[in-house]
Amino acid sequence: MTGALHHENIKILLIEDNPADIRLTQEVFREGKIRVDLYIVHNGIEAFDFLEKKGAYQNMPRPDLILLDLNLPKKNGYQVLQGIKTHDAFSNIPVVILTTSKDKGDIRKTYDMRANCFITKPFDLDQFIDVAKSIESFWLTLVQLPGNKKETEKNPSFI
To answer: What is the span of the domain harbouring residue 50?
Structure first.
């Protein structure tokens, strides 16, 4: 399923607690060339609830792509990444780490945990916009995403 050829909106789950980064990401995807449904959760617990379709997230779709910050409250990005990549129902969803860290240990650890990409968030506004546009250009235009499995797992659980 290539973004440019796909007729349904691409579903992206943004797991981010920084309001400014959320707003910038929303704006870039709103102005982008690809139709995107951007879903936002603010911590690791909400991320699992979204994926497991619990509580307020019962009717949420399975995301095509996940953008994950490492520095999250409640459950950090490593815990979220581990939960996603070790769960059969979600392990093939591409996860892009989008974080402020430049630490080589963080980079190595997330790739060892099967992250699909590691991007350090720039502090400069224009550079952040460029990063978000490059995510759109690469992940939503060039990459063939696995797409949604049939909804055989109605309420998958991480337990």
So the answer is: 10-142
Residue 64 · residue 145 · CB < 8 Å: yes
In total, how many domains does the chain have?
A: 1
What does the alpha-carbon distance between residue 79 and residue 64 come to, in Å, rounded to a whole number?
20
Q: Please report whether residue 21 resides in a domain.
A: yes
Whether 148 is in a domain gets the answer: no
Give the pLDDT mean for 52-79. 94
Give a yes or no: residue 27 inside a domain.
yes
pLDDT at residue 15 greater than cutoff 80: yes
Percent of the chain with pLDDT over 90: 57
Q: How far is CA 66 from CA 29, 36, 124, 126, 135, in A?
A: 14, 12, 23, 22, 11
Residue 147, amino acid:
G
pLDDT tens by residue, 101-119 = 999 999 999 999 999 999 9
On whether residue 65 sits in a domain, the answer given is yes
Q: What is the pLDDT of residue 1?
A: 40
Residue 151 pLDDT exceeds 50: no
| Cα gap 157→51, rounded to integer Å | 8
